[in-house]
């Protein structure tokens, strides 16, 4: 069957090319200097970035008219535009499809054309298959002989299944005369194109073989240096002949100088020079030259041997850590230890620290301070949502638009080979069919192998062994096990009200005042107002929202200073509403009413502790147990266990024996911002059910946590400290906890512990006795 053709009409600006052609699927960059062409580019940029590129019949003509340009060219998309000194613009374009001019609809100030777009939709048959195979064989020979195209290109090209596309891609790699390229462009039928290209490639192969023969002879006669000199001279002559700018050679020389100066390791330098050699041979205008240039730029930008000198002065480090952060005792101590050990033993490879804690507790910012204290540069990379190994390790150069992975990218930003490198959210990495990023991370973090880290794009080993890696996570449970084994965990827990107050007064407020261009004396927030901000406008473990609220106040204050000509603004609990609007959270113990079927539980999530309200209602029915809202599977199970417990103990609980036949129970857990699950809601659900079934209210000022067994025993739970902080935040003064958690009470900060009343329960009876109010 013959190929089908799809025909499409489009309108766009035209740009005449001098001595160049572009094929569909080809990426090319070239310089534009003619004013008319620049206008075409500008027009294209405001209109979908499409442009019709077509060659001039004679490259020497400066101001071509209709007769001077071919009729068939390529609809292309502008990918990038770069203004160079002088009025030159460098553009990067990608060929989209062949097209033929129907009419030039405008000649001045730039060409505008109507074109017919011709896409080849080929139907594959034995003939085209055979042609493709033949062509591929010749192309392979060509690559081997010419020595100018990297062998990976062959792999990429051989994966192409469309005959027309294969011809186009090969055409863009091999050396062809302008007229030949045009002939290929005008071959709309893919089969025709394959045939023509095959002929041309055969001829080129013959030429290459002869050249090679001559080359071998010449090589024997002149030694290497002489040969290089000779070749370079020859190339200059050829370039002059072809009318190429002197710039070309100058650019190559510039690269050579930079490579010499860059203090590259031996292997890297060799690779850079060999790439430069390829660039020189192929000329700066060819399709692949952009790829090589980008590659060389990457090599030159990386800190292969640049290192900052560590400041291991312990006192200085202590001062910086103390002055920039309140509290965080454990982290600071651990850092000081680390420095002390480094001081005693310079070459020592420290363990990788992992800061674990809810958001906004200063994990990121203390790592920044570590970098400052050590006099190292700082880079941060979030691993949240990274699921593809290539994001870490990069794509091979043969991919269009390939760049190195994020590690190498980070090193470039660091500008030195020994930065402090922070991996945020290492617990939020996932993996899919494209490879597991955790494997790549293992290599990065392993001191045994990270001195030769390999990025797919660079293809050269990069030394990461001097980097100080630190990671953060919200939850240690979801960190991939092998990574976890490599790290030393340091817990950073949520803050109490007192701590928040201190952080706000000493750090957050001064920082925000400065950022808003004010002076300390311009804005004063009273302590009572600050406590109100903490309790009524935020509900979090960390201080992120708190910082945002302070920023809001600063913005309003700055406006008042400017608009109302005031000098100093004072914020107190009375006028706080003016700055922040009505409070978002209620925080008054007396407001916690006793209600039937409503109980406050306590949960522990990756985001710190939180309250977990549970509501139960009873309606006449036939014994259904309905669960709605935010219940995970574990929570559903403990609801059912609680239900069974109640059925088995109706007599002591004073509940209708037949309730499971006469009533429907509905348990609802209102949606919160963070999903919660776990067995520790057991006692909460039983209490709510008993309250609803017995129609007795529950004390509103009590919160509870504990797992429950079918016999009513209360089992211990995790995260007591965070839960206690959450209870305090919510204005609760009594919490019921499993008796086995008694020893954890000492971890709760003093000022919170003193204000809370703890009830220890080993059995659900104790819980019910202390919470259900008998009517
Ligand atoms: P995380 O990385 O834990 O999510 P961040 O480092 O982003 O938290 O902290 C949020 C903000 O709170 C930052 O501006 C940080 O400087 C500030 N902050 C947090 N904890 C403290 C602290 N203990 N002392 C001073 N500032 C703090």
UniProtKB/TrEMBL annotation:
A UniProt-annotated Pfam family:
AAA
Q: What is this protein called?
A: Lon protease
Which PROSITE patterns does the entry mention?
Answer: LON_N, LON_PROTEOLYTIC, LON_SER
- Where is this protein chiefly located? cytoplasm
**Mind listing the GO biological process terms from this record?**
cellular response to heat; protein quality control for misfolded or incompletely synthesized proteins
PANTHER family named among the record's database cross-references: ATP DEPENDENT LON PROTEASE FAMILY MEMBER
Q: Name one GO cellular component term.
A: cytoplasm
Q: Which organism is it from?
A: Oxobacter pfennigii
